[in-house]
Structures are given as structure tokens and as C-alpha cells.
Protein: EamA domain-containing protein
Amino acid sequence: MNTGLKANVMLLIVTMFWGSSYLFMKMGLTDVQEFNLIALRFGLAFILSGIVFHRRLIHADFKTVKYAFWQGTILFLVFAAITFGVKSTSASNAGFLVSLTVVFVPLLLTVRYRRMPENRVIVGVILALTGIGLLTLTSRFVISSGDLLCILGALMYAIHIVVTGKLTKSVDSLTLGILQLGFAGAWGLVFSALLEQPQLPDTADAWVSVLGLSLFCSAFGFIVQTAAQKYTTPTHTGLLFSLEPVFAAWFAFAFAGESLSLQGYAGAALVLLSVLTAQIDIKKILRKPGFHKSSAESKTNSIAG
Structure:
């Protein structure tokens, strides 16, 4: 197995873990309050990552710590919105709505650089809005607060991605990624202390939730993503990450018995299509050297066969 294929396989595993995170959050919120769950998730992830990469953290400079503070603050806001949203919507809905991050990123870049979005982004937005309507609107044309929070979380996550792309150009990205987990966990602990009663999980399901979120979805996910993306293309990464809502829906169905209505499945399909449309640049693929040649060869081979 070559390096690129190994990287794609690892990213697929990361995507699967991220898809399971919505179910883990649902499980954890039955015994642990929202900010408390965020504190435990990112606090444990930071401790584990810090142990593995302690040498990098020791040499972190003030600039990296400052950037990590802002990154961690945004990350906390992202998961505060998503965690509260998951509590009042289904894990399936949350997975598909948060995947809209992929659509929001090019829109934010369009606003930042004051230029018209590409046609594929416009098509993706139209598909996304239609899908959101089918997925979330009730017969009274009302969107639940949980769905709105998940959409807000997707927008905040898009901001996080855009800001990360700028900040990582001048500091060590892995150190930045680990430190931001610590700041996100610290914010969770502060808000939990102010508004809740911080506690450790006291049931097996809650511990499974916290350990799954912290070890697999956060520590493993962030570390492996950073390492694997070095050996694959952004297109492959984006396509693999677009499978996250599919995994979310599968985990919710397999372990929680969740299912969508026919309208919901239609909306989910349009949201997924919008993500793929915004991610894939068909014109760029068609312009690649050798594409037409390989296409011609495949046609010749099929005729010969």
C-alpha cells in the first residue's frame, strides 16, 4: 500500500470517528451537561496529545500560544453550538447540517476577497438551502432550535477553517492544533463552573461517550488529520470528509434506531450533493493533462472489448 493510499485510508477512519461523534454526544448528554461534556472532551484530548507531543509543546513560543488561544476560543464556540444543537435534534440531522461547513468556507472566502463565487459554489448553496428546507422544516415551516444551532456551528467551523489557514502559515501547525484543544477545554470548564455543576461521568454510557469523543474524535482525529494531509491532495481530503454525515446517519440508525422521513432523506441527499458540488471542481479535473487521453483510451478499450 503506497503512502498516498495509506493517508486516504487514515483520513477515512478519521471521518468515520467524526461521524460517530454525534451519537457519542447524544449518549453523553443524558448524564453530563453541555459545557461539562465539552470540558471533558477537549481537556482529555489535550492531555493525551500533550503527552505524545510534549517536546513540541515545551518549545512553543508566545506567538503560537496566542494564536492557539483564538483558535481554541472559536473551536469552543463551534462545539458549544453543536453540542447544544445535538441535544434538541437528531444525530442524523446534526451530521448533515454540520457538513454545510464545506459550503460555507468558499462563501466566506468570497466575502473576504470581495469576488463573485464560482458557479459550483452558487449551485452548491442552492442545493444546500433546498436540502436544509426539506431536512428541517416542519409542516408549519418552523426550524427547530437544535437545527439552527447546528447550522450556526457549521458557520463557526467554517470561520475556524479560514482562520486556521491563515494562522498556520507562520507557526507549527501541530503544536497550534494541540494547544487549541487545551484552550477549548478550558473555556468549557469555565462556563461549566459558572453555569453548571462540573462532574465526572457516573455511568458506563457517559464514560464511553467522553472517552470516544476525547480519544478517537478529538485527539486521534486532529493528530491523524494533520499528519495524513501531508501525503494526499486537498480534493481527496474534502471528498473523504464529505462522507461524515453518511457515517453519522449510519451510526444513528445502527445504534440509536434513528431514521429520517422520506422528505428528510431527500433533504439529506441534497445537502450531501451540495457538499460534493462545492468541493469538486469538474472543470479543473477535465483540464488535467492526460484526462482526455485516458478517456479516449478507455473508450477504445471498451469498444475493443
The chain has one domain: 3-304. The CA atoms of residues 140 and 174 lie 47 Å apart. The mean pLDDT is 83.
